[in-house]
Write a structure and sequence with these properties.
The protein is mainly α and 191 residues long. The chain is built from 11 helices and no strands. Helix 4 crosses helix 9, helix 4 packs across helix 10 and helix 6 packs across helix 7.
Length: 191
């Protein structure tokens, strides 16, 4: 069985369609958001970095996660996609507010939408019929101890990969790149 066929068997066609749709939506999101400080290409670069780091960690730890860590790295932050598609104007306003007030972007989104990124991501995951493993990553990437016990190793690997991706400079908030070079304050980042 070739690697593509094996990946489809492990991950499932529905999840692969979701990933492809997410990558395809970069240009669409940029068009309907207009001039936003949120950079969709960098967003997917961050998610891709988290996916590859998660795979590397799983291999080094000899965890047999069957590719769920890679997919989880790709999709852990889909709450941003859900909120941007729900209301581009509010999404753009939250990005602008985060830059102007040096605030945390996720907090501004929660205030404007009345829902946090985790919940928004879980709703999109449910509607997209993602596997339970992927949903648990989305729900618990910031608190792996809250994941079901049998999925904690998987969620922990993706959580650590997410942190490493951020520490490696894979950020998707345009203002954050400027702040890194001109300020000592923390950037208003993603997850």
């Amino acid at each position: 069985m070739n690697s593509l066929a094996r990946a489809l068997a492990v991950v499932g066609l529905g999840q692969v369609k979701t990933v492809v749709a997410g990558f395809a939506s970069v240009d669409v999101c940029e068009r309907f958001l207009g001039d936003s400080r949120f950079d969709w290409r960098e967003f997917w670069a961050h998610c891709g970095a988290a996916a590859f780091i998660a795979r590397s960690l799983a291999e080094r730890l000899d965890l047999r996660l069957e590719g769920a860590e890679f997919l989880g790295g790709l999709l852990h932050d889909i709450g941003y996609l859900a909120l941007a598609k729900a209301d581009a104007k509010r999404f753009r306003e939250a990005a602008d507010e985060a830059v102007e007030r040096h605030g945390f972007f996720a907090d501004g989104l929660s205030r404007r939408f009345g829902v946090d990124l985790v919940t928004a991501g879980d709703v999109l995951a449910e509607v997209s019929q993602l596997a339970n493993e992927t949903r648990q990553i989305i729900l618990h990437v910031h608190d792996p101890n809250g994941a079901p016990e049998d999925l904690r190793p998987l969620v922990s690997v993706v959580s650590l990969a997410n942190e490493f991706a951020h520490l490696s400079g894979f950020t998707f908030f345009r203002a954050a790149r400027r702040w890194r070079s001109s300020s000592t304050s923390s950037p208003p980042g993603g997850s």
